[in-house]
């Protein structure tokens, strides 16, 4: 078994992988808590509610472990700094539902990290089976600060400052510093009792008790303040406070992209038909729709691919795509916020704790529709660079080439000099053909655009 590079912080156990299987060890130090997790019925309750993934015990040998569990391998791993507002909010509310359920079974969450959540079959699931401890009467919820830093604070910044604030989480692996959040929020938020309590006063208390002659002061807390009932009240209050945070009615160019097309409905349907026919031929297990926008064509792929990753730079478009997956109960589409020109890097300890986006984006079919002009002209990327990118993630590529005559390209060139003499269909095919042995062309009727299909044979 090979140890997961991001699994080393919890002494209770470790995640390993072998071939295409995922294992989690449970160390002897966690035995009492794990047995309580099972015997109290909490595990069965959470599995039945589809809040966590089930496990099965194995006889896999591991000297360090008391038990070795096998859990289902998730199709795609995504991270909080790649989620839309509603995705982060849904993950936050799931965490609090689990905290409330744990308390009802005499247990408590020992951590509330956003990285304990993944999206699976269209909704969030809690993946850390070792996050539960037996509740001791009178003790505080040690994960409270983590919940605020990982969930409540980022949601407030996204709602009250800018939706793009969520991407800052990749700079703060253990959540937002609360003094940073307190200073960033509008002054009017001090009039909100919940924000005042959980952000502004909380930040002030942290500064008071953690900056005394270079060492943290011990804060004496009366046990009677932390009964099981008071924990339930806190969880319910946090749930209501989190649920009340609303995404602003913000619009963007890409959020309304499909209202600004330059070909008619017949051309749009022909484009869908071409994509679907190619997808049927390739029969991918995993497909990636780069620049997915609202996911119109991700849904074409999803009819034939087991898993579809749908990254887009626009948080509003990703939000709307995610809400559509919820509404339609679509289980195999994974919308995430991603800037292809500045993608999520490997971060954390030795840059290996969280994998880079392109390490996770390997697929059987990669697609970029109405994207190449934004990369080449909007971001000054040579065609060779774009070809290298697509070739690095898949052996099959669907590409929509948008020529200079197209109104969308003319819009990009309207305020700048045309310094792109090699941006044309012939040079695009030449650049991609350095990586792929086959190229098929499908002109779109009533349009100057062409669908290209490259593959390695």
Descriptive overview:
With 457 residues, the chain is of the alpha/beta class. It is 37% helix and 16% strand. It contains 15 helices and 16 strands. The protein has helices at residues 31-39, 42-48, 85-104, 144-160, 178-184, 193-209, 228-243, 265-282, 298-302, 315-328, 357-360, 372-378, 383-393, 407-413, 425-433; strands at 2-3, 15-18, 21-26, 55-57, 67-71, 107-109, 117-120, 123-126, 132-134, 286-290, 307-312, 333-337, 365-368, 396-401, 438-443, 450-455. The strands form four sheets. A seven-stranded mixed sheet has the order 12-11-10-13-14-16-15, with helices on both faces. Strands 1-2-3-5-4 form a five-stranded antiparallel sheet, with no helix packed on it. Helix 9 links the parallel strand 10 and strand 11. Helix 3 (85-104) packs antiparallel against helix 4 (144-160), helix 12 runs parallel beside helix 14 and helix 13 (383-393) packs across helix 15. The radius of gyration is 24 Å and the shape is globular. The model is unreliable at 213-224 (pLDDT under 50).
Number of strands: 16
Amino- and carboxy-terminal Cα gap: 33 Å
Tell me the strand order in the biggest sheet: 12-11-10-13-14-16-15
Task: Tell me about the largest β-sheet.
Answer: 7 strands, mixed
What's the total helix number? 15
Low-pLDDT sequence parts: 213-224
Taking Cα atoms only, what radius of gyration do you get, to the nearest Å? Answer: 24 Å
Q: SS-based structural class?
A: alpha/beta
Specify the helix fraction band.
25-40%
> Can you give the mean pLDDT?
92
Shape: globular
Percent strand equals: 15-25%
